[in-house]
Amino acid sequence: MLNTNLRTTLMAGVSTLLIASAAHAQSQPQPASNEIVVTGSRVIKNGANSPTPLTTVATEQLQTIAPTSLVDALNDLPTFSGSRNQFSNPGSSATGVQGGNGAADVLNLRNLGAYRTLILYDGHRVPPSLFNSTTDVDIIPQELISRVDIVTGGVSAVYGSDAVSGVVNFVANRNFNGFKAHAQYGLSQYGDSQNYDIGGAYGTRFDGGKGHVEFSYDYRDNDGILFRSSRPWDDLPAVGGGGTAANPYQLYTNVHLAAYTFGGLITSKAAGAGYMFGDNGAFSKFVSGAATGNNAIQVGGSGAYNNASMESPSNQHQVFGRADYDFTDTLHGFVVASANLKTNLAYPGYLQLTNVTLNGANPYLTAAEQTALGAGNFTLSEMMQNAPRSEVLSHSQQYYVNAGLEGKIADYAWNLTYTHGASELQTSSENNINYQNLYAALDATTNSSGQIVCRAAIANPTVYGNCVPLDVFGPSAASAAAVSYVTGTVTMHSSTVMDAVDGSFSGSVFNAPAGPVTAAVSGEWRKLSYDISSNGTPTQYVNCASYGYANPNCAAAPNAAAITLWGTTFPYSPTVSQSVWETAFETDIPLVKDAPLIKSFNLNGAVRYTDYSTSGSYLTWKVGAVWNVTDEFKLRATTSHDIRAPTLYDLFQAVSVVNGNFTDTINPSKPTTSYVPSINVGNPNLKAEDGYTTTLGLVWRPSLLPGATLSVDTYHTDILNAITTIQGFNAQTQSICYGSGGASPFCSLIQRAYGAASPTNAAAAATAYYIKPFNIGKLWTYGADVEAGYTHTVFGRRADVRVLMNYQPHIYYEQPGSVVVDQGDAGWGSNGLIPSPSFQLTALVGYQVTDAFRFDVSERYRNALHRSGVLTQIWADPIVPAYATTGLTFTYDLKDRAYVPDTQMFFNIDNLFNATPPLEGYYSGGTSAGAAYEFSDNPVGRAFMIGVRIRG
């Protein structure tokens, strides 16, 4: 009751202030040079005159939202729906939206995909740091960022490809002088998610003020949350059912897998089927749990389950330096260098043995068990709980150099910049099963001395002389030596490099009656390349002939079946590259000034020609208008055509394979007890996406209420030929194929035992599913952003209110021959889509209690969600409840104390009322209980942060 009452009181207070006025515009520190940075345009010098919606948040305010990092604070803003970070579900795959780094901080505007959000640093494109061309924004030097500009509209005509949903520009403080440092420590109330952040910056002028240098360093470490079971609300959830009226989908808790136990479950139809090896290896009957409508999972029972990590442990070193020099009054030069060295660790789950074949005379079996099982082979499935969990360890090294000259010729400004970015990512799958060794270790026998050994060690001692037999009959039966023998580490190394040269020339062309007409011409050349190497590729297979006999886990004929050597494989790709030339023109034309009901009216336009070496040439454009009706009231509008060219990863991604349990929907009664490979491939025939965005907005600054601002911007975005990765194992993909009778191109993603030409043959087992990008028909969305607030003196002290809201009811995915998917207001979707609430709000309230003491309150809210965006699915529990959290920060300023330097101490409580995030689930995730797709909200719970900031 206390929780509800306090939250209601807070929201009522925010609403009252919101009705009274609107959002406070933060002061924007400007760079040292005379050129003002206005994100979204090269010719507009006042952000208030931008026709494109622009949200600016100062670093100081971001720190009150989330003191942990700028990126965490940005993800709490409502427009960043669908971003990924260290809470994203861990996995062992090298593929996916985070490009081989499962805990990368990837920003995503409007949940239209991180690859449609362009990241800038001081107006320049930040090189991609992941091989799928997305950017881990931890490369940004947080110590010296003065503000973050968020453009929510298409601006490809200004910045080039990828700026379809918008741009995030980190604007640097180029003129920092002096010294500052910070240190902070955080911990959740559960005693985990322990984190440290220590950093500092120094800046000074030299040579009589002509030159300026600044440096910064930041170290962050987070212990993470290593087990999902560490949260009382995470009670092994998973989705069961089939999505039909007769068998609706439903989210269950206390879910166990039907085909695995922690000590081994006999799965064959021979004598002993349905028995398991329990505690101490006891041979006992498997106890089934309650049915869920999905043969793979049960509620309760003797089945096993996963216990993956919830927050990825990480640590990183961030180093930055900048040097500026005024060679003359009209010539300025600069060099920027940044590096981020980052390590992430995730635990996807336990090691799994799926239907491995064993012999009834295995010497690890007791005489009674051998009698019960009878002669011959049997199959067994097991989760090896006593073995080390699978680990995915990612080491990334990101480097960024930006150097340039800028100056003036008469009244015209020019700049020329070179950018080099390089990223080295090493991702290791540790405790990865080596099937060559596993099959040798499983086939145990006794030698002439009565010792238990591997049969392969007798048949081929040269190769298998060091084989350690594996006892799988019981939860703790396997020895550490045997587990070490059957597992290993597979490592992938990827290198991504970007080189770019860009320049622009801008200024006033002539004076029109309503004011000067400004224009800018710009050009850019970029080259991007990446390569991938691995010591465990999908084309490495188990050598069945090497055992020297017919090993029961290999085909009777040597190498008759292609069994991948490793449980998790990584791709190999030689160097692939693309280059692009671009040229652009932009102008701002004042048409009317000081007329009745028209204080001013400006027209802004831009056009860009782009030529990709891999996907052809394109023309993008933008037209915008700003109508200042009075000094208080302004209308603005834009319409644009934008593109996202297919990336190198889209086009040429190397083949990679992940084995998994997938439901074959053409025969849903068939148990999913066998691993089937999912094979990722590229599509060299992809075309660029075409985006069309229209925005219409108003800004009101009432003179009767100084310090108040209200802005409302509506948007509508259509993306044609949208590039989407289609998963062959996905239930909807299978439905499209089977409904077409095999005619759909998606049928090429399903391979069966009788050949790919018969993907609809229910009698044939699925032997592989493919994952491949396609240009689907259309992706479109619409909505509105509202920013409002007020700054005023209350009881002689400053009070601030700022509220940001986003309303986005629908994100439609339309594919030919398929039902429409509406990811708006929906939970987890295919291809890694993160939930997209239709209404999100972030409210900030601050008050300066005394000269030294201030408090800030933040409130974050999202509305209730549908569990799925597939409109034809039927759910027994279709709604995920709404969720809100409250943050509280106290700041005490010691700058007026003579005995200390300029110092601030702060204390933050995040999720003040320890709100429990509602459980969610992915409808195709019914075979991963305790591993993935269980939440979208911050799972840490109530957390505390204490810190100090010093400036000298």
Q: Helices, strands, pairings?
A:
Elements: H1 2-20, E1 54-58, H2 59-65, H3 70-75, E2 117-121, E3 124-125, E4 145-151, H4 156-159, E5 166-172, E6 178-188, E7 195-206, E8 211-222, E9 238-240, E10 250-252, E11 255-257, E12 265-266, E13 275-277, E14 283-285, E15 290-291, E16 297-299, E17 314-328, E18 331-346, E19 351-359, H5 367-373, E20 377-384, E21 391-409, E22 412-433, H6 435-442, E23 444-446, E24 452-454, H7 455-459, H8 461-464, H9 480-486, E25 487-512, E26 515-534, E27 573-595, E28 598-612, E29 616-628, E30 633-644, H10 648-652, E31 656-660, E32 676-680, E33 689-700, E34 708-720, E35 723-727, H11 731-739, E36 750-752, E37 766-775, E38 778-794, E39 797-814, E40 821-822, E41 839-848, E42 853-862, E43 865-866, E44 879-880, E45 883-893, E46 902-910, E47 943-951
Parallel strand pairs: 2-5, 32-37
Antiparallel strand pairs: 1-4, 2-3, 4-5, 6-7, 6-47, 7-8, 8-17, 9-10, 11-16, 12-20, 13-14, 15-16, 17-18, 18-21, 19-20, 21-22, 22-25, 23-24, 25-26, 26-27, 27-28, 28-29, 29-30, 30-33, 31-32, 33-34, 34-38, 35-37, 36-37, 38-39, 39-40, 39-41, 41-42, 42-45, 43-44, 45-46, 46-47
